[in-house]
Amino acid sequence: MNRKNCFDTVRHIAALMVLFSHHYALSGRLEPYILGFESLGGIAVIIFFSISGFLIAKSAMNSNDFVDFMSKRVKRIFPALIPCSLFMFIVIGGFVNRHDLGNYFTAETFKNIISTVSLNGYANDGVSDKFMHPGINGSLWTLPLEFLCYLITGLAVATWKRAEFFTITFILMIFMSIILLINEYKIFVFSIPLWLFFLRGSSFFLGAVLALNYDKWKKKNVCLFIVTFLCMYAFANYGKRIEYTVACYILVSFLTILICTSVDDFLVKGRFDFSYGIYIYAFPVQQVVINYTSLPFFVKMLLSAVVTICLAALSWHFVESKALSKKSKKLLLKQN
User: Fold this and answer.
1) pTM for the whole structure
2) DSSP readout, 16-80?
3) Exposed end of the chain (fewer CB within 10 Å): N or C?
4) Which of 302, 314, 305 is nearest to 277 (CA)?
């Protein structure tokens, strides 16, 4: 594959899409929806997962064993999540409860910090009770799913390190998504509807399939056929919840990888990766700005973006890049 790509830039754009979309919801407005399919933030999550699957698949195939593979993933997720959790519950929580710190800083607060870092979530954050929209960080719901995708990929590393594993897993994810959507199962795992696990997982594993079969599909006539067929199929099934949803998930995932592998990076060029930091810090920053300032809607959004990018930059330079070894950091930026 040509190393010139725009994965970095697209991930940063997707992170800002989440910020933009969430700003509506956190302000008590309807999030922008695209063609009756997903919110702008939801589409950004699909973009994240498809890119993650594309890049992680190659990392898996190059890993020595399960421990080697998972150690890289742990270094990417958890080091940044720890200071973010402290920021949410100590800094923001202390500010919100500044008139009653004695009742706020209890064992429950530190339990929430530990639960957040361990991807368990929390029943009551003790911070956002009086906010316009509850929740101190609604973005973190995707992390258990992403980590589950890593574990499934790690299984391939440990047992059957072949491209067919990812193809079979992708098909299984689509099949289970359809079954759960048809029957409207109301099963929740980590407080998330089970059908969302499989739909988001399908984007991840489609990205993996495309990575490991790059030479087979990355041809102009093949790409044109796939995009045309998916667009026509989605259009023909507009209004049909299951067919339209599944078709759009596949279409957005495929278009993401197609664009990322076809366009040169004009902005980031592997110098940094603030996208994860933007994703995990935006929600709590927006909650404070929205609920504690009286600025106009779009000024609040701009202020939130500036503060979030600053925190993300600090997270990358002082936490994330430090957690990665020089070798893995170089490999990460090269892959991206």
Assistant:
1) 0.93
2) HHHHHHHHHHHTTSPPPEETTTEEHHHHHHHHHHHHHHHHHHHHHHH-SSHHHHHHHHHHHHHHH
3) N
4) 314
